[in-house]
Design goal:
The complex is a heterotetramer, with 2 copies of chain A and 2 copies of chain B. By secondary structure, chain A is an alpha+beta fold. Chain A is built from 11 helices and 8 strands. In chain A, helix 5 runs antiparallel to helix 7. In chain B, strand 2 and strand 3 form a beta hairpin. The chains are: A alpha+beta, B alpha+beta.
């Protein structure tokens, strides 16, 4: 662990937070959850346009702001705090993966993602099988839980070609593509299961390149989700703290009780450790491509722990009211639950880390 | 009035268990085996048919005094009933928990009410709500405000209750309300038995984070309740409540433990074997067995008429820990399925997991229970 | 789990507690720890004689009281509370194992154990190898951590004969026996490592019988140690509670602070669950020989958890003073540490239990 | 007085790390590599030779102002030093912790004392005790009673201190004492610098549960301390103590984390691989990395002269958790060896495990640290 010298990006966080305070209130989140699209189109347009949030880490030549993972992490953290319903994570991951494969990506696609004009969804956790025909590549297989796949323009798909892994781009409107919405525990995000039935595809990366690009994409996803988890945890900590200051029982605010104080102090500890780990992981991702896998998993694990604790204790401190459908507490817990699983089980992160230590000693 | 004296199994628990075991295995009850319905009201309605069948075959009459239509025996008969229902793959739902909590206090403190009403409850024809908590009186029950003012032969009840389990479908409410001054705290409380169809009663279901409407909020606007509907004496409400909480905390713990053991086995069947899984399932199992080993003794004491008092908080806390241990194991070990899948089995795990979250909240938060143990079992100085 | 109908043995517990209040004070425990023998001979004599503690579960025809595991557990629990230094566990295990093998045991040996006139130590966790000679059986091997082996008159030794396990009795004064005292974290008990170098031995049990007898002996050991752990935990809970009532900080007894209250309440929970599990296991051992392995491990695991928590929190609540050599708190933690390991690692108990559940479903 | 201006590495941390790394790898230091001595006093005496060697080579002078014989730089230089000592297999012992805690407050609040005495401390020739806790003032530091009464040009000190780390071998004591009334609590305190060989000072070692004599109790009987030995102003003792606690909590956390990472690696080498071991080692590693990620920022803030204040309690609590996580892993995974074996490596694990138990007690119990976070970081209402 090294000393960092980057200035803290408080300004960026403030701008995003002010925007979301207006556009991602509890009422708006619930509206978005109930909508067919899953988010408010006008808000998403402003997010991409005014704030440039979708192209934050995209280089200027592709129409982005040219910032890095640190800045993306700051925005995702705010998104977590506000339970933002928007295809933000997809934009970040889609553009990064297309940039990673370089000229194999269709020209202008990254710029369209950055502008909020296209959604490229990842179907890289499962693997289809690919075969070459006279008309080009054809993919078959099924991919569960594809984030934002319901309105994606295209999919990045992992598939094997004669046992070698490769990465493909598939047009969502191809006749061989069918998608079915699935209901998860979290209503603030949209998932579909995608079935490919001889869908036409173009190669983005082959063999080793594909594997490495997917691994990098998943590392990035872990860091960004960890940032969201920290935002969720921070918000739940704030909600619980505010409630503890005002809710009275036994003739005084419950925040005067040592049991409540210590519970909240424990949440502070988890949040602080997770926040530090996420900032560190983002910094490494921006400066050192070699050790990202390890720090991404550290950040993911810590942030998952923090968000699990904070979302649960928020409910406990709110008591009965916190366990109702009407109260937002459960929405945070639900989103945190999906975030934990979206790019791998926490136990898998822990085991991978432990193996890394074993190899080192 | 059905029976006039104790039934044959009142003093023979092993024989009761054997006979019940045979009865519950019969095809007559197959319709209810493995049932789980998303909608709570619908589920209780459906299960009431099962309760009735068991009652009409006399097995559901044990643990109730003959004066209330029962066949005698004690809470150990209930404990046996819970175990055997679970073994037979039959459901234990809301009416069982409510009966566990309310039947003994009514029988003891209001035999006249028990004589008239308890049989219908025990038979599954109806169930009663427990009106204790209020918006401003959750863990701090003694600060409750719902008032009952004596006016002639009636109490006139005004106020609000919150978190009433299955209150929206209940026919009556066992209501803890203030008959003294607000400052009187626990001294100025009385317990009333109230019909939910009386004028001035309004009850609305509350949807929980799980999506299930298990609770209700109740509004009382000058509801006239005859004074003979007192449970215990006027001003004795806290004592009745404390008596009641022994059952709510300890016997209910036995009931849930029976269910949880079955759920843990169900989980073990679907989770792939492995060291981590074994460790987590093993720990949950130990938590459950620790609870049962404790609970068997508490239930025995209650059955013998002993006062368990503050020690019942230990049963409740052990239940909370075991409940969360089982469902945390489910959440972790079912992992992606738990988060992403919407098939009925997974939806059930999810809903039950949400319920487990509330185990440390309802009926006096875990923090309050720990305080009770510290203050009243260990006699630490009041803070 | 069934309802039990046995009367609680409060009278027995009281008698033993009164005796130990006199004979096993902190000063006496420290004297015993510093002595060559490891215990006070006069106290042990009274324990065996007056209280009949060594022959409690030995049938009357062998000079014992004819009670069961329940009663033994009650005495061991008191021994844990008082950190009793005495070969009590060895007496219980040695006599039980010799009774188990029946007439193969030398006549009168069990009676001598019950009277406190002989110590038979178990060397059954490791396995020696046995060979038959014209002069009879000869054993070779080494056994670490043999409890009370320093003054044992004989050893019960596990050994293999042509791949088949068997159980032998070895005279401690045989020329082929050497023993070396070893220092463990717990000074209240004496351990030796025993080396057998062609030591003369007589057969106690053969093949399947031996294996089953050793398994039963270890199950019993787990239950009795669990009882001790509960006693240790109860005493530490009482010490911490008393201290919390008198020690003042911030102008009031620390027991007024909710953090201390809740910590102690958590200890109560563990102790209550463990105590119930141990009583249940003892009851099963007395009534149902089939399921002892499972309940013994449940009791062991719960009691280990309880004693670990109680001994640790006792130190935490005492603060600095509880972490000094002078204060007895560490002696309890040390004894609990040995108890955890003496007949198998807690993790092993957990895994065996989990396998039992898996097999059942 | 050695240097008169900042050294070449004062503003170049990476270069300092590289040069230090090379220096610590030299055979000159081989005598100290891997050393661990049961007797604490003996160990510190032995390690002081290493401290001196590093100081005389100028590396030990960073993090100290030139006015105190140092070469400038800040606490980040210390952080680098701790890391590199560990990497080189060299010990970090009592004098390092004491220096971490005491050097900055002395340099800031008593430059005249620092100018005269600090170099000898930094060079390993001596070390100082920290006289804060008392028998009746443990976690509640503000209630301390040890008195200092001004009499002419001297303070006359009488009272007792407890739990003074390495007090029995220290040459001086940094003493927090009461110059105001007992009721004045934290307002009536002052900090003094006292020679342990003055008449009226008696210091006795305290043997801990581990068997090591790491602490001491100090008795002061009318000890005359010149008034110019004040650290800070009279009555400013609490402010100095609060400033000091930032280093005791946060920089010390970095130091211990460096050691703990190495110990965890040592544990990983001796424990057989397996799922459970991996899980427990992995969790301990994560706790450590979480602590480091937090600590790197706290150390940076302290180096930049920012006030970390109550937030340093988070570093201290994270350290406590990490410390116990590492040594609990050792206790569980070493199992029988830990309990039964008396070979030197196991004795060391045992002694360190005992020390880890005290991490949540010394320097303000974990309960007090949580209270600080709740009251002063979250601003919850005072109880």
């Amino acid at each position: 662990m090294q000393f960092r010298y980057d200035p803290v990006h408080e300004e960026l966080a403030l701008v995003v937070r002010r925007f979301l305070d207006e556009t991602s209130t509890d009422a708006e989140v619930r509206d978005a959850m109930g909508s067919a699209l899953g988010w408010d189109a006008a808000t998403v347009k402003r997010l991409a346009g005014e704030l440039g949030a979708f192209g934050l880490a995209v280089p200027a030549e592709h129409g982005g702001a040219g910032s890095g993972v640190t800045e993306l992490g700051i925005v995702l953290r705010e998104a977590g705090r506000a339970l933002l319903c928007a295809p933000l994570l997809s934009a970040a991951l889609g553009s990064a993966l297309l940039l990673d494969v370089g000229t194999a990506a269709p020209e202008g696609l990254v710029a369209r993602i950055a502008a909020g004009d296209a959604i490229v969804a990842l179907a890289t956790r499962a693997t289809s099988s690919a075969r070459q025909t006279e008309q080009g590549w054809r993919l078959a297989g099924s991919h569960e839980w594809v984030l934002d796949g319901h309105v994606a323009d295209s999919f990045v798909v992992s598939a094997t070609t004669e046992q070698r892994p490769a990465l493909f781009l598939v047009d969502a409107n191809d006749a061989g593509v069918s998608r079915e919405p699935i209901e998860t525990v979290d209503g603030t995000r949209r998932f579909v299961s995608v079935r490919l039935d001889d869908a036409a595809a173009t190669v983005l990366a082959d063999a080793g390149d594909a594997k490495a690009a997917v691994a990098r994409s998943h590392d990035l996803a872990l860091i960004l989700l960890a940032a969201e988890q920290v935002g969720i945890a921070e918000r739940c900590l704030a909600m619980a703290t505010d409630y503890a200051k005002t809710r009275e029982q036994f003739g005084r605010p419950i925040g005067q009780f040592q049991a409540v104080k210590h519970k909240l102090a424990s949440v502070v500890l988890e949040v602080e450790a997770a926040s530090a780990a996420v900032m560190y992981a983002a910094w490494i991702a921006d400066h050192d491509t070699e050790n990202v896998a390890e720090v991404a998993r550290i950040a993911a694990y810590q942030a998952n722990e923090a968000s699990t604790l904070a979302t649960s204790e928020n409910i406990q401190i709110h008591g009965g009211i916190g366990a109702t459908w009407e109260h937002p507490a459960h929405l945070y817990l639900r989103r945190a639950t999906i975030n934990r699983q979206l790019f791998g089980d926490p136990q898998a992160h822990l085991e991978r880390l432990a193996k890394l230590i074993e190899e080192r000693v | 009035m059905a029976a006039v004296r104790n039934g044959p199994y009142a003093d023979d628990l092993p024989a009761y268990r054997d006979a019940l075991h045979r009865f519950l295995g019969a095809s007559e009850l197959d319709a209810w085996r493995g049932c789980y319905i998303d909608d709570v009201a619908e589920e209780m309605q459906f299960v009431s048919g099962m309760v009735r069948t068991i009652y009409d075959a006399d097995f559901g009459k044990y643990g109730f005094p003959v004066e209330a239509g029962g066949l005698g025996g004690d809470v150990r008969h209930w404990a046996v009933m819970y175990d055997e229902l679970v073994v037979a793959g039959l459901p234990l739902t809301g009416q069982h928990s409510l009966l566990t909590t309310l039947a003994q206090p009514i029988a003891r403190y209001a035999p006249h009410i028990a004589a008239t009403y308890l049989a219908a409850f025990a038979r599954g024809d109806e169930w009663w709500g427990q009106g204790f908590s209020e918006p401003e009186a959750g863990s701090d029950l003694a600060s409750l405000r719902c008032r009952a003012v004596l006016d002639g032969d009636d109490y006139v009840v005004s106020g609000q209750k919150l978190w009433t389990s299955h209150g929206a479908t209940a026919t009556h409410t066992v209501l803890l309300c203030r008959t003294g001054t607000t400052e009187s705290r626990h001294k100025g409380l009385s317990m009333l038995f109230l019909d939910n169809d009386m004028p001035g009663v309004e009850i609305r279901p509350i949807y929980l984070a799980s999506g299930r409407a298990e609770l209700a909020e109740c509004f009382f606007d000058e509801v006239r309740v005859p004074a003979d509907r007192l449970i215990g004496e006027a001003g004795q409400g806290w004592a009745v409540a404390m008596y009641l909480l022994q059952f709510e905390r300890a016997v209910y713990a036995w009931q849930r433990a029976a269910v949880l053991l079955e759920r843990l086995e169900a989980l073990t069947r679907v989770v792939p074997s492995g060291d981590l899984a074994r460790r987590q399932l093993g720990t949950a199992y130990l938590d459950l067995i620790g609870l049962r080993a404790r609970s068997v003794e508490t239930v025995r004491r209650l059955a013998a008429g002993e006062t368990v008092g503050p020690e019942a908080s230990a049963d409740k806390l052990l239940l909370g820990a075991a409940e969360q241990s089982v469902y945390e194991a489910a959440r972790c070990l079912l992992g992606e399925q738990f988060a992403f899948s919407s098939d009925p089995a997974m939806r059930r795990w999810g809903q039950e997991w949400w319920f487990s979250r509330t185990t440390t909240i309802y009926g006096g938060a875990a923090e309050v229970q720990r305080g009770i143990i510290a203050d009243r079992v260990l006699n630490l100085p009041k803070g």
